[in-house]
Amino acid sequence: MHMPKLNIKNLETALSKRKKILAKDRPDTFRLFNGFTEGCPSLVADVYRHTLLLYNFHKNPQLGTEMTDAAQNFYLQKLPWLNAVVIKTRKGETRDLKRGVLTYGEKADIQITEHQVHYALNLRINQDASFYLDTRNLRSWLKQNVKDKTVLNTFAYTGSLGVAALAGKATKIMQMDLSHKFMSIGKRSYKLNEFPVEHKNFIVGDFFSCVKQLKIAHKYFDCVIFDPPFFSATKKGRIDLAQNTKQLINKLRPLINDGGYLVVINNALFLSGTDFMSSIQELCSSDYLSVAEIIPVPQDIVGYPQADFKPLTDPAPFNHSTKIIVLKIKRKQ
After folding, report:
1. pLDDT tens-place string over residues 122-179
2. Per-position b or e across 246-260, b if 16+ CB within 10 A of its CB
3. How many Cβ atoms from other residues are within 10 Å of residue 140's Cβ?
4. Is domain 131-329 classified as CATH 3.40.50.150?
5. Domain 8-109 has CATH 3.30.750.80
6. What is the pTM assigned to this prediction?
7. Where are the domains of the chain?
8. d(C-alpha 113, C-alpha 164), whole Å
C-alpha cells in the first residue's frame, strides 16, 4: 500500500476540526489526528492528559522517523501545554521501539480522568497504550446502565470497561484476562477511585477454560462484555473475529441472566459492518437474542475524512471498524 507523505496542512485541518475539544475544559484523552481517514495512513496522534502519543505505522524506518519528528514539532508548537511525547514504531526493530520511546519531556502521564472516573495508564507497557480511546462511549454507556447489576468483563486487558461499570454502581464486577501484568493496571485504577480490590474478582486465565468453569459453577451475570483481540489462539480454543463471532457469542449466552445484556466489540478491520450485522441477525432469528443498541465510536477517533477517502471495508451501519453492539438476552424457561 502506498504511504502518502505527511502534509502539515493535514495536521492543521484536523486540528481545526477539533476546536471544541481543545477548548479550556478539554478532556484528558482524545485523538488529534487519524491518518487513516485524514490523509496520512502511517500516522495517528493521541493525547493522554499532557502526553502526546504518536503511532508510526510507516514501512520505511527513516521516512517514518522524519514523519514523527515533523508531527512532534508541529504539535509542541501548537499545543504548548504538552509536556511529554511518546512515539511507538509498529515496524520498529526492537521491543522498546514498538512499545514506545519517550522523545520529549521527563516522563509520560500515568493516569487520566474520563467522565469523572480515574484510570491508571502505562503508555509503554505494550504496542497499545493500556487504554482504548475508541470505547469511550461504551464506558459512558456502562456507567449509565449497570446500576445494581452484576458484570463480567472478558478479555478485560487493563479493566477500564469494568472500572466504568463499577463507577456506574454495579454490584459486582468480575474482570477476566490472560495477563497478570495488564490486570495490575486495572487494580491501580480501582485504588485511584477508592474501589475495593477483591482479588477473587480478578480472574487470570484462558478465556475458554474460565468460561467453562463459570458455567460449571452456575455463575450468571446481568451484563457480559466481550472485547477480544482480532485474533488469538491457545490450546483451549481460537478467537477469529472475522470467522467465529457467532460461536463465541453462543458460548457466552448461557452466563447471562434473563433480560441481561451482552456487549460485543468486533474490531476486525477487514470485516464489513454488513457482514458482521448479518451474523448478529442470524443469531437474533431465534427470538432469544435481540439488538438493543449500536454504540458509535467518538468522532475525534473516527477522524474527519477527506472527500476522496475510501475505507478498506464499509463499517456501516457502524461508524468505524471498531463495531460495538449491545444485545439483549432472553433465557429459555
Report:
1. 999 999 999 999 999 999 999 999 999 999 999 999 999 999 999 999 999 999 999 9
2. eebbebbbebbeeeb
3. 17
4. yes
5. yes
6. 0.94
7. 8-109, 131-329
8. 11
